[in-house]
Amino acid sequence: MKLTQAQLAKYMDHTMLKPEATAEMIDKTVAEARKYNTASVCINPYWVKRVHEGLAGTDINTCTVIGFPLGATSTESKVFETKQAIEDGADEVDMVINIGELKGGNDDAVVADIKAVADATHEKGKVLKVIIENALLTDEEKTRASKLTVKGGADFVKTSTGFSTSGAKVEDVKIMREAVGPDFKIKAAGGIHSLQEAYDMIEAGANRLGVSASVQILEEAAQQ
């Protein structure tokens, strides 16, 4: 696989989710995204307004996270957080599923949680990605979570928060692709640090990459 720097940039959600992120760090992330024209900038909800304003005049989306990073907040909280984020300027929201309910076999609760956030997101014409946190799941649970994400009406299923025991793995992207079929979108996130790792995720079936090392990877792409 070989993509131009510009093509690869449009796979990337340029990410700054560190809890210690300052306004200066957020502004630097926005400036980098503008320089390389990434797909989005992904930040915690507090920073949505600032990022949305910083991306004015570009086609770069503002992406934020919901119920992050544990997924164990109430559905009502996730819906409120989603609506507030969209009001503040979010174009895309990445929510974490209720991992405990998935592992406990309560699929109806998982779907209801996703659907409530999907409805709030789509009501405003925005995009929902659902984080299933593969590091905590068996292969059977990864498959089931991916299928429940489709059933809940989301737009993407996403591998990881980047805050658990491991991030995206090629094997997991393949499992997710098999579960959701050829057309549903997949985001791989967490631990993608090199051009080869980015290519491996895309070849496995990822449509989007959540990356904090975007600059390093895109500079590597420019030199290939």
TrEMBL record:
Recorded superkingdom: Bacteria
Catalytic activity: 2-deoxy-D-ribose 5-phosphate = D-glyceraldehyde 3-phosphate + acetaldehyde
Pathway recorded for this protein: Carbohydrate degradation; 2-deoxy-D-ribose 1-phosphate degradation; D-glyceraldehyde 3-phosphate and acetaldehyde from 2-deoxy-alpha-D-ribose 1-phosphate: step 2/2
E.C. code: 4.1.2.4
Active-site residues, record numbering mapped to chain: D94, K158, K187
Keywords for the protein's UniProt record, in alphabetical order: Cytoplasm, Lyase, Schiff base
SUPFAM superfamilies hit by this protein: Aldolase
Record localization: Cytoplasm
Group of enzyme by EC: lyase
GO molecular function: deoxyribose-phosphate aldolase activity
InterPro entries on file: Aldolase_TIM, DeoC, DeoC/FbaB/LacD_aldolase, DeoC_typeI
Gene3D superfamilies: Aldolase class I
Family: Belongs to the DeoC/FbaB aldolase family. DeoC type 1 subfamily.
Function: Catalyzes a reversible aldol reaction between acetaldehyde and D-glyceraldehyde 3-phosphate to generate 2-deoxy-D-ribose 5-phosphate.
Protein name as annotated: Deoxyribose-phosphate aldolase
Organism per entry: Limosilactobacillus walteri
Upper lineage: Bacteria, Bacillati, Bacillota, Bacilli, Lactobacillales
